[in-house]
Amino acid sequence: MTPSLASRWLLGATFAFVALFPLTGAAQTEARVIVAFKPTAEIVRSMPLRSFAEPDGVAQQRAGALSTRAGRTLSAGRMLDARSQVVRATGIDSATLAARLALHPDVAWAVPDQRRRAFLVPNDPFYAAGPAVNLAARTGGPDAGQWHLRPPTSLFRSAVNAQSAWDRVTAVPSVVVAVLDTGVLADHPDLAGRVRPGYDMVNDTDRANDGSGRDANASDPGDWVTAAESAQAGGPFSGCGSSNSSWHGTKV
Fold it and tell me: How many other C-beta atoms can be found within 10 angstroms of the C-beta atom of residue 31?
């Protein structure tokens, strides 16, 4: 029972990446930058946006207020919300303009306005949809495939839409993720060579299922229950019903 994982984008697998395409040709002479103002920005307080129906005047006023810092005359692009908008300028590149605007005391952040395209889809075979859901037979669905990583649907409303996160960032080798769960199968294909030493904090040897209490071995022996254990009167798993291991910690 080898599970698929929810965290491969944090652990080094290749799922998706975003390529940024700068504008080409004559359009390169025009810089385009998205600017977000701080909630306390004087520019926002003195030039409030009263309605998105007619934002052009306010957007241009705010762009004009930034012109001194930019060293260029700025024109307004579209408003994104009450505190962010696109600004444009000629004779300067987008990266340079963004860096200058980011220094303004009223600006929370400024980034080049560029086109983003996702090129890769998850390469994990378990990412594909599992068998069709049969509610009567209780088969398929959540127990098959990585449904929990895809965008939510009317059936799987708790899916986390991780693929949108993969469009923003892929593996970051310096990031260490701590998981407090049932343990780990460190030799799982998705985890081999990526697991750091852990610790077993379970001191109940029956529930630990590894014959010992707390120790420096964080491997998961499984949480299966046999029919004999379930039928044992007065036993620690009496009446639990037989079941296979969930390998929950490894999935997480």
Answer: 24
Instruction: Look at the chain and count its residues.
Output: 252
pTM: 0.41
Q: Report residue 51 CA to chain centroid gap.
A: 32
Burial status of residue 5 (CB atoms within 10 A of its CB: 0-12, 13-18, 19 or more) = buried
Q: Got the DSSP string for 111-167?
A: EE--EEEE------GGGS--SPPBTTTTBSGGGSSSGGGSPP-SS-TT---HHHHHT
**Inter-CA distances, 52 with 7, 56, 79, 83, Å:** 39, 9, 8, 12
Give, in degrees to the nearest 5, the angle at Cα 158 between 122 and 188: 45
Q: End-to-end alpha-carbon separation of the chain, Å? A: 15
By three-state DSSP, how is residue 67 classified? Answer: helix
Query: For each of the chain's 252 residues, which pLDDT tens digit applies?
Result: 333 333 333 333 333 333 344 444 444 578 999 999 999 999 999 998 776 655 668 899 999 999 988 888 999 998 888 899 999 999 999 999 999 999 999 999 999 998 866 555 566 666 665 555 665 665 555 555 677 777 888 877 888 888 787 777 777 778 888 899 989 999 998 889 989 999 988 888 888 888 888 899 999 988 889 999 889 998 888 888 888 888 888 888
Side chain identity at 34, as an amino acid letter?
A: I
